[in-house]
Amino acid sequence: MRPVEGMSVLVTGGGSGIGEGIARHLTALGAMVTISGRRAAKVHAVAESIGPRCRAVVGDVTSASDRSAMVEAALEHGGGGLDVLVNNAGNMYRGALSELREEQLLEIFHSNVIGAVMLTQVALDALRARQGAVIFMGSVHSQRAFPGASPYAATKGAIETLTGVLAAELGPQQVRVSCVRPGGVFTEINQRAGLGDDATAKARLDGLAPAHALGRLGTVAEVAEAVEYLARAEWATGNVLTIDGGLGLGVTNA
Fold this sequence. Notes:
- The protein is built from eight helices and seven strands, in the order βαβαβαβαβαβαααβ.
- By secondary structure, it is an alpha/beta fold.
- The chain has a seven-stranded parallel sheet, sandwiched between helices.
- Helix 5 links the parallel strand 5 and strand 6.
- The longest helix has 29 residues, at 102-130.
């Protein structure tokens, strides 16, 4: 297992939720973490609260120039190299089939799939030089069918398939590619999905707790621990690591 101390890590979508949790977890273990996000105030506030081991760069993964800037910032902050790319940035789009709009479908595939793939392309030389790792963020939506969530589920299914293909492609270059598949974890994305304000969205997600075998939602810290493992494990590639409290099992606790 590689030590986290001294690792150079780039985490997209680091201004809140799981991305912020990953940044806090890895910097606490000694990594130099660069976080990116579209909302300047958010990413800068997170980086400032974490301290000098965390650097913020404002950018959108759907922008080619922003993707290049993210990698450049991570290389500078990480002492000239990059050990881990965490493709965490994403958005959610929900709706019944009869209500879906092509423009919004294209947007969510751009943010959740295409942006992550193209950022990985930009970072590849640096990752190859350090024999590093790429970690994508999947979702239990690829395992359980939630009506109205087809756009989001489709993007996460694509990401999980890409994980295996890219692991096979980049393995000979000593670049590991894996994916974390979380279950129910409350973050800002739940509100942006149209589930109401914070309190309403939290209440609706809490209602899903009995569908987890362990009877509760997860935390961003628990997801971050899974990311840490994949960043460190030198013989792990092509994995989709499920960390979902048993939500994907299809059980219901009465």
